[in-house]
Amino acid sequence: MNTETIAAISTALGQGAISIVRLSGADSISIVGRVFKGKNLEKVASHTVHYGHIFNGKENIDEVLVTVFRAPKTFTTEDVVEINCHGGVFVANKILELLLINGARPASPGEFTERAFLNGRIDLTQAEAVMDIIEAKSDMSLSLANKGLDGVIYNLITDLRNELLNTIAHIEVNIDYPEYDDVIELSTNIIKPDVEKLVDKITILLEKAQFGKIIKEGLKTAIIGRPNVGKSSLLNALLREERAIVTEIQGTTRDTIEGNINIGGIILNLIDTAGIRDSKDIIERIGIDKAKKAIELAELILFVLDNNQKLTKEDNELLEITKHKKRIIIINKTDLSKELNHHFEHSVSVSALNKTGIEDLELIIRDMFLSGEVNVSDQTYISNARHIAKLNEVLSSLKDSLQAISDQMPIDMAEIDLKNAWNVLGEIIGDTSSTSLLDELFSKFCLGK
Q1: Which of 103, 110, 193, 349 is most buried, by the most CB atoms less than 10 A from its CB?
Q2: What is the pLDDT of residue 232?
Q3: Neighbouring residues of 335: CB distance < 8 A, sequence distance ≥ 6
């Protein structure tokens, strides 16, 4: 167990009402006591707040409130002290500097949460949920993150591991006491059905995970089309602000312009791309290349066509390029005379300039990706990309085990894949995680958390 006392500023740096400087470790209370003038912190009760001042020698630094939390009933299970000072970059940094001089060391990103995990206060899924809460951008993403923090994901994975462990136990008994079971009967009538049930459960989890991932991370959404069809006007209409410059001059948008909107709980990470056409302008061609790259990476294409013009060669090329992507055809400029006479699947008519039809577009997006069936109270939504990747590994191992059984290979060969699946499930909750994995995960946290 790490015995060093760590300290960091836990609030965002900048001007504000308050800043919080946090310490965790065995010497937290004594370190703060060296610079705090007020009650003797060594003698106060746990979970109490105390008024006083922080001094650097005889120099009064700030008027503060100090909260003392004694182990083990703290976030890290260690002694924790939080100093509430006036908001401001200089004041908070000055107090932190004093604490470091008096024996604390700077905390690494996420180290408070990492200590909570290493000390058994939370599991790895709960630790990751802390960051998910901080990064939540919608009510639904916040609800999913809170379920992770409440231990829902931990319980789900633990139940799967227990089922798998029972199956492995059947095999171990057969290996140790082969006289009790016929190996073929054991494989076919006991092991195989159990593994098939697990495959079904994880398949359902992964099917639902696509919705959870969308809720958490949003959709990479590219607004595409040839020049002057109204892409930038559409971006402005969706964002409800004049983010992109709109003119009648073709090629006005020469680089990608980005923005985020929340549509019924779905975050669209919008990219307004340069109009795609043949161009000899070097700068415009760079923008066009970026637009083509955005199409490749996009999870949703908003393809804008001009209601006032017939399909062009460029339109047809873009229709072909995007035919295998999830896309919505947006027939823009419905306030002008109609020249476009085509029926497209997943299409909507709008006037981006007049901001009409935008709500219809938003409804199509929600129905396309969530089908109106997402219920965040469901306990089986996985939204973390790492968890999803690990579940895919588990599914692959379980299928390999089934294949070994079908090929009537020795039962211990099937067991190898089952044990691997059990270990990978353990990696999700941190039961079998490597030090390098933990370092990588917690390095993504903010300082002071």
Answers
A1: 110
A2: 81
A3: 351, 353, 354, 356
